[in-house]
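REQUEST ID: PR-0412
SUBMITTED BY: lab tech R.K.
PRIORITY: routine
TASK: structure prediction, single protein chain
INPUT:
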Amino acid sequence: MLVIRPLQETDLEDLYCMAQKAGKGLTTLPADRDLLQRKISSARETFNQRCAPEAGLYLFALEDTEAGKIVGISGIQARVGLDEVFYNYRLSVTVNASKELGVHVRTPTLHLTNDMTDTSEICSLLLSDDYQGGGNGLLLSRCRFMYMDEFRKYFSEKVFAEMRGVSDEQGLSPLWDALGRKFFDMKFTEADMLSGLGNKAFIAELMPKFPIYLPMLPDSAREVIGQVHGNTAPALKMLQAEGFNFNGLVDIFDGGPVVEAFVRTIRTVRDSRNRYAMITSKAVDLDVPAAERVMVSNRSFRNFRVTTVPASCVRTDTVSLPPAVAEALQIESGDLVRLAPLKDRVKTSARAAG
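STATUS: complete
OUTPUT:
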């Protein structure tokens, strides 16, 4: 069974192996044991409420309970820009005009901004190659919105995601080579690693504060601004299905797009419902297509857990759960749980149930 749960100290080696296989460009999860250990510790501090929930880092693991290992991770940064300045480039247009000369020129530009300060960020989405497909990526991504819906007071009204930008198999980024490298004598992979280690603000502060006129950059750099890495395209598609849209901001290193949505308008949040759990002795076939499943969460802050069951288990006021599922969610019969469709096709069934 695949179950979402908070990341634990014992997950370090599994997480490190996944980070190694992820390749270059996944800034928030570099293959660095010390950094990953610090992230796990921060997440544990957050879930155990040893820090302000509004400033916490929430990291969720996708565990294969039969294999006894984690096979995916996703996260939420409750607020960005509180400890250090958070930078993006905003795509804009500078207009120069002269009536006397009959000139009206529009020049696309990049402006360094801090627009996302104090906004919640979803981050660190990574799924093992062996578990791609079957709705696993949907579960890993959308469980975060169930958590934000449940504990909305700890998060901002708006949430965003920085998508991985274009780089090649050697880790070369066209935008970095044309812009960032002019100010830093280092490769994109080095700058990306420093960013992952928490030095992004330091690098950004040495970048030019004046507008960058895009016509001055080579075509190879201009073409990748606002574009995602091929491996990130499925994640972007999932977020777009949830209602996220490009907000005109891009990453300062690789030019990857920033997408955002208001929490209240996110599809998973809009379609979520509460039901009472009823543990049933009847056999339930859990192996159904993703389009016929719903996500079920236990609504716990410290020990948040999510898995999926067939939509046919949902009734007007209740959801029938096999004992194994109830045990995985750590709930008892009569507990109030939260449901949300895993895919759009389940939406009608969930709403019809009340």
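NOTES: Residues 346-354 have pLDDT under 50 and may be disordered.
REVIEWED BY: pending
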